[in-house]
Amino acid sequence: MTAIHKRMLKLMLDGGCISAGYRILDKDRNPVMRVKEATFRKYKHLFRKSGIVYLINKSKVRQEHGNTFIKKQYKSLKNGTGNNKIGA
Questions:
Q1: Which of 68, 66, 48 is nearest to 56 (CA)?
Q2: Phi/psi at 32 (nearest 5 deg)?
Q3: Which of 7, 12, 13, 17 could staple 53 via S-S, CB 3.0–4.6 A?
Q4: Pairwise CA distance, residues 73 & 84, whole Å
Q5: Mind listing the pLDDT tens digit of every residue in the chain (88 residues)?
């Protein structure tokens, strides 16, 4: 998993979404970054479509194996012990 993948998933867990053109928007709907279609397709199974944007599907994240990056981030944010800063 590359740094781009990690940043994308952290933004999504923090309330972000993916809009048309594979733009990642933060929780205030400000554009943060753009990803390639291949990057989006790699994690599409973790997203759900809501209108015209893709949001993180937390039930799919909870089904992931406990050793994966996304599951570790979800658990740390859920417990309040995680560092949800994007650059950290």
A1: 48
A2: -110, -45
A3: 17
A4: 8
A5: 888 888 998 899 888 999 988 999 999 999 999 999 999 999 999 999 999 999 999 889 888 888 888 888 888 887 776 555 544 4
